[in-house]
Specification:
By secondary structure, this protein is α+β, with helices and mostly antiparallel strands. It is built from 19 helices and 34 strands. It has 5 domains: about 70 residues, Arc Repressor Mutant, subunit A, CATH 1.10.10; about 60 residues, Nucleic acid-binding proteins (OB fold (Dihydrolipoamide Acetyltransferase, E2P)); about 70 residues, Beta Barrel (OB fold (Dihydrolipoamide Acetyltransferase, E2P)); about 280 residues, no CATH class; about 130 residues, Beta Barrel (OB fold (Dihydrolipoamide Acetyltransferase, E2P)).
């Protein structure tokens, strides 16, 4: 009689063990013997019953069962029932984050009930046993998390499947023919899981939307937005509501406002900007001082609370800036038309007007609703040319504003503001959205001019509400807050900076600490350690968020700060405008808990938008490098992890991974504290901020992944072939599959297991 294949026997054993576990889980404190278990699970052959008996004996030996009397068993204390959020991972390492806890507890797939990522679940937490990691089993899915998956469709005669690279799902999604929504093989689609039968390997789903052909730019950008739950088009009813808004300004409305149409006013924005939400004005006062006005589009005059427009703006909370497009918070009829402070058009604004002396001291300020008429639209490049040459349209005003801004900026740093000034990556793209070149957005004096006056306005508004003159309790308000750095991260930063000869204070006032960070950031300019220390300094900082609880803004060194200056693209600014109008008219404080909920939502959406922007940049970087396979670049190690080294290229700031499995000259350990990989035998050290030379080895556009090969001083990969001989970069890349075989294979597998 033929013996069953080994893999078949293993499968049968796993299934048997799973059935035994399920039986025991349902027994509570009841006792049972092997015959009862065998009968319950259908083990009706002598061989199967023997296997059951042996399994029960093994479980008793391992402490998983208690033998009450010979042959009679019961489960020990099986643990507690709790609720939490299910975290699904495509690598099978599913966990549940219990309510009130930060640590995840492992859930084997057979114990998951096919819960999806984000589902609210009830679980049985197994009693802890010495030397065994805690586990739990899903008992009930309390609340489903409505989520979608994005991927490529494959359509057969009677059904389709969606293949996704989601980190939350390891299997394809099965889609009945009637739920494909016209999708064809090769389409990029959004799919919602509708069911996952207990006995099915694959979940069942339905197509929500077809984004286009897989790989097409428009489809990929929409896919990025959908991945983060961000909208990629406007509901028709919202567009219609926007179109109905009357852009006219009545004499009665002008009479209610401060008329500043005759004051020299202009906007300074990026070259490709279409929504101009801020303008500056300047005029000399009879006493010799300057009157500088910061004028912000009065969006809330047109978007009324609880309207369809307002509800949509509140839900979105922010405009989303991808590489090749802007997904506006408000329909373009409003953002680029009615509200935009376009030149030679009368516009309604909310303004901060400052009387300043020649040393940029604010003598007095006012916050008021105004009407303006912009005289000129400047790009940053045009304004910069005027600053550098001293000539051009409205040169006197721009030069004076630049002078005042520079004083404000210097004073801000003297008072403890942190100076982070990192280059931003931008792409030149062709008509198909394909990147053809990379350039850097560098902040110059014209950018800093606008920045300083926006900061001044935001600070003034926050202080007006947060620090009332009558010394009464401040009314509920929206603040932009930034907590102090993480103490441990700051200590780590100081320790690493000390190795390079720089001193950072880890105690004292915020002003003292920030001054020491600023000094380091100035001193490292142009040096090899610049990237390392500037990255670590940024990572030590907390994230800025919106809150009604004013803790100040650590990074700026301000006790009071808010966002007032961009209501076209940020909903918190609209909230601030409404609160200002109410409070300046003597209104009572609004409900703080409800306002805090809106703040949290806006903070969450801001983070999602930032993630989407980074994903779009990453996608274009991979597209760009996919055209440059085999090319060599100088770079800097920008990240160190247990799975490899991330390298940022100097020439274009694109980032890719040198997998640890490809560092075949040694077995490398990850030193988390010192941000480096260390070779066990050679003691070779790859550290965050180290300069390296790499070659573009692989580029997977679909997964937004680039692999680099590390190149040695001789222009060859830092690796051996399977015979231990040096190989060229070309040979290494061309024979990457061969290199994984032979003597190196065991080492690679050991590395991966780590």
């Amino acid at each position: 009689m033929a013996t069953a294949p080994k893999h078949t026997r293993r499968k049968v054993t796993r299934e048997l063990y799973a059935m035994i576990d399920d039986f025991i889980d349902n027994q509570g404190n009841k006792t049972f013997n092997y015959k009862q278990v065998s009968h319950a699970i259908g083990a009706d052959t002598p061989q199967a019953q023997k296997a059951v008996a042996m399994r029960l004996a093994e479980m008793e030996f391992d402490g998983e069962l208690i033998e009450v009397t010979p042959g009679k068993y019961k489960a020990p204390n099986r643990g507690n029932v709790a609720t939490g959020v299910f975290i699904r991972r495509s690598n099978g390492k599913n966990t549940v984050i219990l309510d009130g806890d930060d640590e995840g507890i492992f859930v084997a797939e057979r114990n998951s009930m096919h819960a999806l990522n984000g589902d609210k679940v009830k679980v049985l937490v197994a009693a802890r046993r010495k030397g065994v990691e805690p586990e739990c089993k899903v008992l009930e899915i309390i609340e489903k998390n409505d989520q979608v998956f994005i991927g490529a469709l494959t359509v057969e005669r009677h059904y389709g499947t969606l293949s996704t690279d989601s980190k939350f799902l390891a299997t394809d999604i099965f889609i009945p023919r009637g739920k494909l929504k016209g999708g064809k093989t090769g389409d990029k689609a959004i799919v919602r899981i509708t069911d996952w039968p207990d006995d099915a390997k694959n979940p069942h789903g339905e197509v929500v939307d077809i984004l286009g052909r897989n790989g097409e730019n428009n489809a990929e950008m929409h896919a990025i937005l959908a991945e983060f739950g961000l909208p990629y088009h406007y509901p028709e009813q919202v567009e219609r509501a926007a179109e109905k808004i009357d852009a006219g300004i009545t004499p009665a409305e002008i009479a209610r406002r401060v008329d500043m149409r005759d004051v020299t006013t202009f906007t300074i924005d990026p070259r490709d900007a279409k929504d101009f939400d801020d303008a500056l004005s300047l005029r000399r006062l009879p006493n010799g001082n300057w009157e500088a006005g910061v004028h912000i589009a009065d969006v809330t005059h047109y978007v009324r609370p609880e309207s369809a427009l307002d509800k949509e703006a509140q839900k979105r909370a922010t405009s989303v800036y991808l590489v090749d497009r802007v997904v506006p918070m408000l329909p373009e009829h409003l953002s680029n038309g009615i509200c935009s402070l376009r030149p030679d058009e009368e516009k309604l604004t909310f303004s901060c007007v400052f009387e300043m002396d020649g040393d940029a001291n604010v003598i007095k300020s006012s916050i008021c609703r105004t009407v303006i008429k912009s005289n000129r639209r400047f790009t940053y490049e045009e304004a910069q040319e005027i600053i550098e040459t001293g000539t051009g349209d409205y040169a006197e005003e721009i030069l004076e504003l630049d002078k005042l801004a520079k004083i404000l900026r210097l004073r801000r740093y003297e008072n403890g503001s942190v100076e982070f000034d990192r280059e931003e990556v931008r792409f030149d793209i062709d008509e198909n959205g394909h990147p053809v070149d990379v350039f850097f957005k560098v902040s110059k004096d014209s950018n800093k001019l606008i920045e300083e006056f926006m900061l001044l306005a935001n600070r003034t508004v926050a202080q007006r509400i947060g620090q009332p003159k009558d010394k009464k309790k401040p009314k509920a308000f929206v603040y932009r807050v930034h907590d102090k750095p993480d103490d441990m991260k700051l200590v780590d930063l100081a320790a690493i900076a000390r190795n390079f000869g720089y001193k950072i204070k880890t105690s004292g006032t915020a002003k003292e600490i920030n001054k020491s960070i600023n000094k380091m950031l100035v001193d490292i300019k142009g040096k090899g350690e610049e990237n390392l220390l500037s990255v670590l300094a940024i990572r030590s900082m907390a994230k800025a968020v919106y809150s009604t609880d004013n803790i100040g803004h650590y990074g700026l060194g301000f006790d009071y700060y808010t966002h007032f200056t961009s209501p076209i693209r940020r909903y918190p600014d609209m909230m601030v405008h409404r609160l200002l109008e109410k409070y300046l008219d003597g209104g009572r404080s609004v409900n703080q808990p409800k306002l805090e909920e809106q703040c949290k939502h806006s903070s969450d959406m801001e983070q999602l938008a930032a993630n989407a922007e980074r994903a779009s940049i990453k996608y274009k970087q991979v597209e760009y490098l996919a055209d440059r396979l085999g090319e060599m670049y100088d770079g800097v190690i920008s990240g160190v992890t247990e799975w490899g080294l991330y390298v940022e290229l100097n020439e274009n700031k694109c980032e890719g991974l040198v997998p640890i499995r490809d560092l075949a000259d040694d077995y490398y350990d990850f030193d988390e504290r010192n941000y480096c990989l260390v070779g066990r035998h050679t003691k070779t050290r790859y550290r965050l901020g180290d300069e390296v030379k790499v070659q573009v080895a692989r580029a997977n556009v679909e997964r937004k992944m680039v692999d680099f090969a590390l190149i040695d001083d001789k222009g060859r990969p830092a690796a051996d072939d399977n015979a231990g001989n040096d190989v060229t970069a070309k040979e290494a890349l061309g024979n990457s599959d061969k290199l994984k075989k032979g003597p190196r294979r065991a080492k690679q597998q050991r590395t991966r297991r780590r």
